């Protein structure tokens, strides 16, 4: 069984990339399992990557490279015994240390397990080429990558891409590097994912990192997740899309008042019947990106929000998220309640 660790900072496009990878592996007849690790206590990305022929597990309320090692071991062993996947893809939180995760899994001494090269996704549209502006954990992720995947190149000019490549090469001279756009559906992207799969077909040579570093403490990121159940029976997809965008803009604007230059990730999923609306914002100066996915058999309508932002006090983040969601749902005259247990605990730094 091959283990692929696909890391990258919050909002770099890991979930979209993994969805495309699953499609390609499926075409090759591979059975794939995915472990999604969210920093908040409510998982969102598991909904996005699940599908026929794919087993998905979520590990929430912390980071698998430090606080959740035991959950990770249990999850991998269960997947191996119950599902026997050919490939297991791990999507860690955006602040994780990939080499530490690899070291933890190596210590489990699982039979027949090999590692693909560690992939780190970089968002070309947001990466600062001034090392002073990059948090230590971001520099660490770049340094630990064996494959540097520069994503969202459709949003930048060619000269800027060259500048980013030169900058990343200085920080990590050893990694193999390629650029692509995970969201673009054109045929040419088949080439990019083919290249990525080829690289992932090789074996990891990276030595594991020392244990015991706490990625959450080192990141300076506050996280909060919450869920809201909606009891209004009729919600059109247009309203779901509109509410998603408005909530994300509202949280972004409130967070901006607390830290005008925040980076991180505000993610929202709105499920209603057979529709899943996914939205995200990854910096103070960005508009929400929204996708509509078709799902089958969602009986309950629910909104889940996860926010993980730099240098925003957690109490303020909690207030900003809850006020934004409640305000927009009340505006639409939708009846709702906060899900039991949602948002009661989380990380506070």
Summarize the model shown:
The chain has 349 residues and is an alpha/beta fold.
Account of the protein in words:
The chain folds into 2 domains: 2-215, Rossmann fold, CATH 3.40.50.300; 222-338, 2-Layer Sandwich (GMP Synthetase, Chain A, domain 3). The protein contains 10 helices and 14 strands. It has helices at 14-27, 45-49, 69-83, 98-106, 136-144, 158-171, 188-200, 215-219, 237-258, 314-331, and strands at 2-8, 32-37, 54-59, 87-91, 114-115, 119-123, 147-151, 176-179, 221-230, 263-272, 275-283, 289-294, 301-310, 336-338. Helix 9 (237-258) runs antiparallel to helix 10 (314-331).
What structural category arises from helix and sheet content?
A: alpha/beta
The CATH architecture of the largest domain comes to 3-Layer(aba) Sandwich
Through-space gap between termini: 37 Å
- Rg estimate, integer Å: 19 Å
> Strand share of the residues?
25-35%
Reported by name, the CATH topology of the largest domain is: Rossmann fold
- Superfamily (CATH H level) name of the largest domain: P-loop containing nucleotide triphosphate hydrolases
List the helices and strands in order.
EHEHEHEHEEHEHEHHEHEEEEHE
């Amino acid at each position: 069984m091959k283990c692929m660790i696909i890391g990258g900072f919050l909002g770099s496009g890991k979930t979209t990339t993994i969805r495309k990878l699953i499609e390609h592996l499926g075409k090759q007849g591979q059975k794939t399992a995915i472990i999604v690790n969210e920093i908040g206590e409510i998982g969102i990305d598991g909904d996005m990557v699940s599908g026929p022929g794919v087993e998905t597990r979520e590990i929430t309320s912390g980071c698998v490279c430090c606080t959740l090692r035991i959950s990770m071991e249990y999850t991998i062993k269960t997947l191996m015994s119950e599902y026997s996947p050919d490939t297991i893809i791990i999507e860690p939180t955006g602040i994780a240390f990939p080499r530490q995760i690899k070291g933890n899994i190596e210590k489990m001494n699982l039979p027949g397990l090999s590692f693909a090269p560690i992939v780190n996704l970089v968002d070309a549209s947001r990466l600062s080429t001034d090392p002073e502006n990059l948090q230590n954990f971001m520099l660490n992720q770049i340094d630990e990558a064996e494959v540097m995947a520069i994503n969202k190149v459709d949003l930048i000019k060619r000269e800027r891409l060259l500048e980013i490549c030169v900058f990343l090469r200085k920080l990590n001279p050893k990694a193999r590097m390629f650029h692509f756009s995970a969201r673009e559906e054109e045929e040419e992207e088949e080439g990019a994912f083919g290249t990525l799969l080829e690289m992932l077909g090789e074996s990891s040579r990276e030595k594991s990192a020392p244990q015991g570093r706490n990625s959450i403490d080192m990141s300076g990121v506050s996280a909060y997740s919450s869920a809201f159940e909606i009891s209004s029976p009729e919600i059109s997809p247009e309203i779901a899309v509109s509410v998603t965008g408005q909530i994300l803009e509202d949280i972004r604007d409130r967070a901006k008042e607390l830290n005008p230059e925040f980076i991180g990730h505000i993610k929202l999923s709105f499920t209603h019947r057979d529709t899943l609306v996914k939205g995200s914002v990854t910096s103070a100066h960005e508009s929400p990106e929204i996708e509509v996915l078709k799902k089958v058999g969602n009986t309950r309508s629910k909104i889940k929000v996860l926010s993980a932002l730099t240098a925003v006090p957690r109490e303020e983040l909690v207030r900003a998220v809850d006020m934004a969601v409640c305000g927009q749902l009340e505006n639409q005259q939708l009846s709702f309640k906060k899900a039991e247990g949602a948002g009661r605990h989380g990380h506070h730094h």
